[in-house]
Amino acid sequence: MAELIKIDAGFATIGQGAGPMMVTWKAGLFKKHGLDVDKPRIMGGAKGVVRGLTTGEIQFGNLAAPAPLRSNVKGETDLIFLTGGINQQFVMARPGITGREQLTGKKIGFVGDGGLNDALVSFIIEKLAAAGIKSIEKKPVSAGGDRQIAALISEKCDAIVITPPESIDAERKGCKYLVDFAEHGLNYALGGIAARRDYVERNPEIARNFIKAYVEGMHRYRTDRDFTVNVQAEYSGIADRTVAEETYDLTRPGMPPVPYPVAASLQVLLDFMSKEVPEAKNVDARRFVDDHFIRELEDNGFIASLNDSKK
Questions:
Q1: What Å distances lie between residue 155 and 107, 231, 257, CA to CA?
Q2: In which element (H, E) is residue 130 found?
Q3: Considering only CA atoms, which of 305, 213, 300, 307 is closest in space to residue 256?
Q4: Do you find a cis peptide bond into 165, omega within 30 degrees of 0?
């Protein structure tokens, strides 16, 4: 048996987005495809993943798109997305607000760290204004799902951008879903697996095997509910299994069978980002995507074979 190649991987924060990577690791699929990957580490947010990739602390990272896109256009890094990933986001309102039209003149929570939350808050304020729902004010709130929910329940703000599993908890406390960012084509394409371009160019076989394992892991995620729920509950520290089950059931329908990075959706973010980051103006998002490993797996029948194995 060939010796396994040691690499390190990480993800931004605990939540639904890291699910496929953790399923891949827990199922032993990295090892199956020749890689020795320790338990993927929490990097303390998307900026932490960018930093870890840049310094070489990790070779592959799961993260949301704004931080690496901003870093790329500023010339600080050269990171590329190799896959898409789960990143289902919603606008939820405090108890008492049941429709998005009620947000006129209200306050929406704003973390202010330059991450995905901030980008989506600004994005949805503009979209709602275009629909006649105007004068929505950004209200500073602390980062973290629990803190944001507390701000919502206490009426410090009237709405927040939130993701499962925290959104499940918020709904149980009487909060309402108002907007699913899937309406804007952003439920799947807000992030994924990224790496340094130069690392991928120097180590194409490692990258190929990592993506092959990850694609198989995403297939396991999509087709093995019990296993995925167990992994989600374990790594997220979810004590109530029903929360993990609802998280799975909420996110599973939006997962495509072939996890391509979606340049068109990254372009939406880049174009919107250009209003605050001049360097992003007229930048083509395709510069930051390398989907040829995914295409290989589709063209050579590997992905089809995963589907056939379940028949």
A1: 9, 34, 40
A2: helix 116-130
A3: 307
A4: yes
pLDDT < 70: residue spans in the chain: 1, 187-189, 309-311
pTM of the model: 0.90
Cα–Cα dist 152/154, whole Å:
5
CA dist 91 and 230 (Å) reads 27
Chain centre distance of CA 244: 17
| Cα gap 74→257, rounded to integer Å | 33
Amino acid in the structure at residue 1: M
CA distance 224 to 221: 6
- Secondary structure tally for the chain: helices H, strands E: 14, 12
- Unique residue bearing structure tokens 């690496």: 68
Question: Torsion angle of alpha carbons 143, 145, 150, 156, nearest 10°?
Answer: 50
Per 3-state DSSP, the chain is made up of helix, strand and coil in percentages (nearest 5) of 50, 15, 35
Our CA angle for 211, 67, 139, nearest 5°, is 135
Residue type at 132 in one-letter notation:
G
Which of 155, 146, 148 is CA-nearest to residue 110? 148
